[in-house]
Structure formats: structure tokens, C-alpha cells
Amino acid sequence: MYPTIAKYVFFYPIRYLRGEFICPLINKVKQIETYDENDIEKYQIERINNVLSYCKENIPFYRNNLPNKMQYKKYIKSYEDMQNVPVIDKKLYIKEIVKCNSLPKKRVSKRSTSGSTGEPLIFYKERIATAFMDAVMYHTYSWHDIKIGDKQARFWGMPVKQQAKAKEQLKDFFMNRTRFSAFNLEKETMMQYYYHMLKFRPNYCYGYPSLIYEFASFMKANNLSFKALNLKGVILTGEMLLPERLGIIEEIFSAKTINEYGCTEIGVIGFQCKHNKMHVMSHNVYLEVLSEGIQVYDEEGDLYVTELNSNYMPFIRYKLGDRGIITKERCECGVHFPVIKSIKGRVDDFVITPDGRKIYDAIFAYTLKRHVKSFLVIQKRVELIEIYIVRDQLYSENTEKEYLNILHKALGDGIKLQVFHVDELPRESSGKLRYFRSEVSANKQVDTPPNFLNKT
Predict the structure, then answer these.
(1) Smallest Cα–Cα separation from 146: which of 13, 282, 272?
(2) Whole-structure pTM value
(3) For residues 88 and 319, is the Cβ–Cβ distance under 8 A?
(4) By C-alpha distance, which of 52, 117, 127 is closest to 315?
(5) Per-residue pLDDT tens for 94-122?
(6) What residues pair up with 142 in beta bridges, in sequence order?
(7) Which stretch, 92-96, 267-271, 343-347, has highest mean pLDDT?
(8) φ, ψ for residue 168, nearest 5 deg
(9) What is the per-residue burial (b if ≥16 Cβ within 10 Å, else e) of 141-167?
(10) In Å, what is the CA distance from 281 to each residue of 34, 40, 44, 83, 267?
């Protein structure tokens, strides 16, 4: 549909009915972006104190672990005081924040993610928080002339169950976007994607770098391109951005690639400006790099994020599971937010089937949800996949049969699926728990199972 129709007939009315008033928040976001370093710190300290005040009164974990208010009824007076606020990871967040909170009377949005870790997280956000997340996102998109209502080609996963799939398709319609599934990368399907792109004529593309790269490689091999579409950009998110893939993507799509860093819990955390610097979204987050528990700049450490505009189920010094470097160097674009110099995060992979198909690994995250605490999938050989599952009490034999039927349908009968029930899963050195590992793509044939506890 025309972007104007999408914007004024669907986007704004639906958000208004949901209690998400995007327009005034976008104006606020624009104002914050004009701040210098001192004003940014004042704004962030004020927002953090507001969140901490709510937490001290309403959340037992913070009531017991936050220091008393300092002078002028503040918990922190500067960034340095953040060291007195406890850090938290996903496991502790589920235990202390999610399970200790009752639903508020005000309107909230239910959100869930398994992300790249395989650990499901279900949480709730008040509407001001979701509205602020989107206000930041759409404003930063405007750095590249991408506007609310613009047509989006989305290279993403798709729910495997019909009801959830229909819901996503309806959402795609209202958001003026078309979706190209990550779970079907056969040659015939990618040719259909090509013709659909030409017919849909998106203004920009959005999705996983590895998926868009696979599509671009297919098109290059067939002497195809999207030069005629005059795309505003290709936003890449959800994985590490591999430099060697950029050239092919930009060549085939005839558009600049734009790097985004974020998470389902908080939204956009970092976004690339026109001068190719990725700025921290200081309108809505405070991002820290910690090395041995100490905040550092210009050196690598673990990334922790604090959300500034959410009180209920807040994310405060929340460990993202990635490592990176933040610098205070100035950028030619004029925005005074810190710059994310590098991120060592997730590089996604594909399942390789015996008939040569590539299927995006997110198929497991979309399937193994209900009654699964966490999971790890290892493709040992082309014809063998091992699935390690930490179950909850409601997981049953029927649950497992349902999951295996879905996966066999997606992957084909040529792959043997072996399921092991375990008490816990091993983590990487970064502390993150990846849900998929391929020993096929890494050209390894290692038959020794990982060191799991109580494998049955």
C-alpha cells in the first residue's frame, strides 16, 4: 500500500488505540539528540534515578540490594555511581524480576524471546516503554530518510504454527511490509522472492545479515540485481556483521547497508549514522562496558544495558551476553552519543540438509518454545542433529512428538533428530548460551558429546 495510507490509516490509529503516543515522543527524541555530553548525562541520571526509585519501592530484589538515597534524594549523582547498582543477567532477571512481579493494573504488552541463547524469557512492558522504543527506532531510521509507513522487505523468521503465522501476516500487512522466510532457501523459492520483491517494490530492506547474504549470493550467481528499486538502505540486525559479505549485499541491492544492534527486551541499542559510526541510543538506554567489574572506555569488555523509560519489569545493568568497545570519540554527524566501536556477538549459521538445502537456524527458536526452559542444537553431520533440552514440569512425550513432527516437516526425513533431556547446558566463555552449533559448516566431525549433566 502507499506509505501515506500505512502511516495515517493504520500505524498512528492502531498505536493511539494501544495507548502508544509515538508523535510527541519522536519530538522528545529529536530534542534529546541535540544535547551535549553534559546535558545527556543529566538527562540519563534523572531517568535512572526515576527507575531506581520505583524499583526500591516495588521490587524486592532492588529493595534489598540498592543503597539508600544519597543527598537530594538521589540514588546516583553521576555515571561513576552506577557501580553501586547491582548487575543482573537473564537467569537472575527471570528469578528476581519476572517471577516476583504481579501484573500491574495499567496496560502492558506481553513480550517473549529465546534470542540466540535458547533461554525463553517472557516479560511485560508498559506502553510508554514500548512507545519510546519505537520512537527511537523510527527517528534513527529517518537518519537514512526511512519514514514511518515506508514499505519494508523483511528477511526474517516465520512462526511454524498456523495461528501464530496468521497473526504475523496480519501484523506485516498493517506495518506495510512483506516477509521472506528464513526457513526456505531453495533456489526455486529464492527466485520467487526475487519476483515478489520487484512486484512489491519496497523502500528498504530489514533482516538477518546471513539470510540477506544468501539471497544476494543467489542473485549474483544468476546475474540479477535490485538496482531498479532505488532502495533507501538495507538494515542488518540480529547477528555479527561480517565485512566480507557487505560488498555483495550492497552490489546486488544497490543500496547502503546499515548496521543495527539491539535486543527484543529493549529494542534498538545502537544504530549506524550516515558517517558509518554506530551510536548508542542514549535517548532510551545507558550502555556500559565492564572489564572485571569496572566500567571502561576504548577497551573490550562485557556489555550491560540500562533502560531509561521503563519502570515495570525494568532492565537495569542487564548483561547482554556480547562483548564490545565503546568510545567517546566525536562523530561528524553532530550527535554526541557514545560510539560503539566493535561488537563481538552472534554469527548465525544454517542447517545443511542431505539434499543440499540451507535452513536458517532460527527454526529451532520458533519451534522449541512451550515447556522448554532452554535448549541447544548441534548438527553433528549432514544427516544427524542432536537436540539437548532442559524441560519444565509440563513437558511431555506428546510435546516432544509435536516438536519433532514440525522439525521433520521443515528439515526433511533425511536428517535424524536425536533428543537428549539434560539438567543444564554448558555456556561459552562469554557466558552466553548459544542455541545452535554446526560442526558441518565448520568442517568438523566430532562425535564426542559435550559435557552435559544427567543426559537421558
Answers:
(1) 272
(2) 0.81
(3) yes
(4) 52
(5) 888 887 776 665 688 888 875 555 567 88
(6) none
(7) 267-271
(8) -65, -35
(9) bebbebbbbbbbbbbbbbebeeeeeee
(10) 13, 11, 11, 21, 10
pLDDT over 50 (residue 79): yes
Which grid coordinates belong to 113?
524471546
Assess whether pLDDT exceeds 70 at residue 345. no
Which cell numbers in the block locate residue 172?
A: 506485516
In sequence order, the 6+-apart residues with CB closer than 8 A to the CB of 443 are none
Phi-psi region of 136 (alpha: psi -120 to 50; beta: other; left: phi over 0): alpha
Contacts of 98 (CB under 8 A, 6+ apart): 121, 122, 123, 313
Q: Which residues, in sequence order, are bridge partners of residue 385?
A: 379, 417
Residue 27: partners with Cβ closer than 8 Å, 6 or more residues away: none
CA 317 to CA 307: how far, in whole Å? Answer: 8
Dihedral Cα 240, 350, 202, 218, nearest 10 deg: 110
* Domains of the chain (ranges, CATH numbers): 3-343 (3.40.50.12780), 350-438 (3.30.300.30)
Say what the pLDDT of residue 305 is: 98
Residue 403's Cα: distance from chain center in Å? Answer: 24
